[in-house]
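Hey, I'm writing a tutorial for new members on how sequence and structure tokens pair up, and I'd like a real worked example in the thread rather than a made-up one. If someone can provide the structure for the chain below, I'll link this post from the tutorial.
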Amino acid sequence: MRNYKILTCAFALMVSLTSTAQSNVMTVDTKKAGAPIQNTMYGLFFEDINYAADGGLYGELVKNRSFEFPQAFMGWQTFGNVQLKDDGPFERCPHYVVLGWPGHRDRRSGLQNEGYFGIGVVKNESYRFSVWAKALNGKGRIRVQLIDQYTMDERQEFVNTHIDITSDKWKKYEVTIKAPKTHNRANLRIFLDGGNSVALEHISLFPFNTFKNRENGMRRDLAQALADQHPGILRFPGGCIVEGVDLKTRYQWKNTIGPVENRPLNENRWEYTFDYRFYPDYFQSYGLGFFEFFQLSEDIGAEPLPVLNVGMACQFQNGKDPKGYVPVDQLKPYIDDCLDLIEFANGDTTTTWGKKRAEMGHPAPFNMKYLGVGNEQWDTLYFERLEPFVKAIRAKYPNIKLIGTSGPDSEGKMFEIGWKAMKEQKVDLVDEHFYRPESWFLSHGLRYESYDRKGPKVFAGEYACHGRGKKWNHFETSLYEAAFMTDLERNADVVHMTAYAPLFAHVDGWQWRPDLIWYDNTRMFKTVSYYVQQMYATNKGTNVLKMTMDNKPVAGQEGQNGLFASAVVDKAENIVIVKVINTSKEKQSVSINLLGLKGAAQAETITLTHNEMDAENTLDEPEKITPKTGTVSCEAGKKNSILNDELPAMSFRIYKIKK
């Protein structure tokens, strides 16, 4: 009897273990390809927040290079005889300085620029110093230095060169500087050399080694990180800066094209938005303008998606104040901006704006297909202004796909009103934004199943998981983003575009976090969220495959043990790609039945996991948490292949099986 009881207990334990091992059985039907996945599915959203443009992606190293900040010498120290003038050679940037005789041979006249939290240079890299200058009596000289102001060495300068100014007419001068060492916080110093006065305008220091080696180009490592995402779209230039704090400071694309020396300064609304993270020197030079955005989109293989102002300043900051919006019958200049932008992007060289594009060095059209009108606005003020834009753009450019917005809410009354209005106006896509906590991401694994398949498509244009009390790029929230993204992929018939936000942040100048990519002046790191986005974007496939657990989508539902999953097929590569996220604190055994695949096979795996939920990548440990590759075997079933695996607790794993 005792042996019988032992055997009975052993059998019960075996059944229990078998049940546990088979409790996470999933089925993927590989025989029938479902909805196509758009090339635009996983993209990027650029906004000039956290010093994303000047001081970040844009390669310029000099702050306030044309003395156009409201405080003209912000970013500069002056010494000796320095005068500010405002009758310079560039109409929209008229300010310049004159360095004059300081009154004694042992005194000095000159300038010193601090850059953006310092000037970063890398050992053995070459930099282009340029300046528009004239000598007041026809001949003069300046000395140009890179300095370490706080060095204990005998000499502050570690680069020292000169430029002879040879004319009393404005002329551009250049000299190449090679950095003998890496320095993250250098300064640029300019001395008047001799007694002859010189005038200086648009003082610039630019790396030669920009992305694609463009003269007015992007910081190479940051732009390469964008290219490595293989994005389908690039949405630009924002965000809230599209709106401005008031209409005067809204983003105006026409001010951002043409010679960089003549692009007017604009206030950045993120300069003073948060008084607890206040940056009074945060302006937009427009060196990174719409031409450069289009060019960057082309360089990284993304569809350009510009967003223009709808005749409204930021609603959060202005409410219903009439100063914050344009009367409907006065919207023509704003509508013309949209029509002219389409011509700038797509018009041939005989058109007014197509000719301007060609003059900037790109005769071929950019082939823009999408245009957003308004950013994160809501209610009647927005709806009644959007309507004439839609009518005018549809009439002249019927093939352009228009993107409206459902406002800042991810659900609720105003969100529903927004969607209703967008359907009535028949926009092509609706831009949804959701910055939400962990619980939201874990509970919205079935968000898009109930969406109207006949209405506008979805652009999940700004989203990120914001941890409760832990609002940074730690592993846990990134994993929950991965879990939520299975629903985006599963519903590719209605979700056509997505983008994490924000994109960039300078470690010394951030105002908003979490962010996808962080950097200082010489280094950068990709967050765990970056790798989540990249894992999806580089394994998006061509079509959705039906994947279920207990005949239900694998979306963290009751009885699914914190598992989320989706599956796609890549017809071009003939590969089935399965994504599974384990959000539980326990390892989970999974058995994936691949219906339609026969025989044994080897699956490639890509796994993202970590045992510290608050861990994150940093400048000093940029690869602390990165995806790791491996393999797992698929067993041969009677009519299918079966993939058995054990998922680590809190992990994201991709399986790639050749058909």
